[in-house]
Amino acid sequence: MKVINLGNRHDASFYTACELFNQIERKPESKLGLATGGTMVDVYTHFVNLLKMNDVDVSKVETFNLDEYVGLSQTHPESYHQYMQNVLFDQYPFFTASCVHVPVGDAEDLDAEAERYEQLVQESGPADIQILGIGENGHIGFNEPGTSKKSKTRVVDLTESTIRANSRYFDNEDEVPKQAISMGLSTILSAKRIILLAFGEKKKAAITKLASGVEDADVPATILYEHPNVEIYVDDAAAPDDMGREV
Ligand code: GLP
């Protein structure tokens, strides 16, 4: 596993979109593990363009999102359901609704919902590609520092630092949900291939720790060392000073 500096957001996003596109071209019934956040917006823009230009049949593609905020309805503008509608499913409305999966953050029984989601992921089989962003504190999905590597989909408490970081998407910090339903680290590791992206100065510290070669529960993304097929692409601003190191 190695951190690769692709120079800029455009190229890394376009590469990732091409890989998702190629995956579907090769295997129309592919399973895609999808992520949200500012990092992924351009990936979906390029992906939608490729799908449109090539008139791709996505009816058999199954998608699984990593996480969802607790307490937000599916139509809340900052819910990850709504994010996915905006960036992908409304832009290319040919996915099969029953094949699109995002945890339900306003379910009456949240623990039961998390268990249902984990079972769905397991029964469906491993994602062909899982795309990942990374939190400023090194989280993946919403697996905050200290998360067990055996963790499955469950209700998680967000840390102060994540609430602060994600408040940029809300009117103010008080409106950021304090919990989420997130795939666990072991759920994420079940994917066949993982592509992690990080852009901007604010991600540099997390990427530097990820590039250190030391697995550390306080930097959840370092669990990726245990996966045989991970690619990590960053832009120049997020690249560690000490590039070129194999971990
Ligand atoms: C969020 C999401 C993660 C995402 C990360 C980075 O909290 N749960 O899946 O990768 O934080 O978000 P952004 O891309 O907006 O910086």
From TrEMBL:
GO CC annotation terms, alphabetical: cytoplasm
Reactions catalysed: alpha-D-glucosamine 6-phosphate + H2O = beta-D-fructose 6-phosphate + NH4(+)
Keywords: Carbohydrate metabolism, Hydrolase
One example GO MF annotation: identical protein binding
CDD domains xref list: GlcN6P_deaminase
Pathway where this protein functions: Amino-sugar metabolism; N-acetylneuraminate degradation; D-fructose 6-phosphate from N-acetylneuraminate: step 5/5
Enzyme Commission designation: 3.5.99.6
Regions that span the bilayer: none
BP-aspect Gene Ontology terms: carbohydrate metabolic process; glucosamine catabolic process; N-acetylglucosamine catabolic process; N-acetylneuraminate catabolic process
Domain Glucosamine/galactosamine-6-phosphate isomerase: start-end pairs: 21-225
Active site location: 67 (proton acceptor), 137 (for ring-opening step), 139 (proton acceptor), 144 (for ring-opening step)
Gene3D superfamilies: 3.40.50.1360
InterPro entries: Glc/Gal-6P_isomerase, Glucosamine6P_isomerase, NagB/RpiA_transferase-like
Keyword Magnesium attributed: no
EC category name: hydrolase
Domain of life: Bacteria
HAMAP family named in the record: GlcN6P_deamin (MF_01241)
PANTHER family: GLUCOSAMINE-6-PHOSPHATE ISOMERASE
Job description of the protein: Catalyzes the reversible isomerization-deamination of glucosamine 6-phosphate (GlcN6P) to form fructose 6-phosphate (Fru6P) and ammonium ion.
Family label: Belongs to the glucosamine/galactosamine-6-phosphate isomerase family. NagB subfamily.
Name of the protein described by the UniProt record: Glucosamine-6-phosphate deaminase
Organism for this UniProt entry: Staphylococcus piscifermentans
Taxonomic path: Bacteria, Bacillati, Bacillota, Bacilli, Bacillales
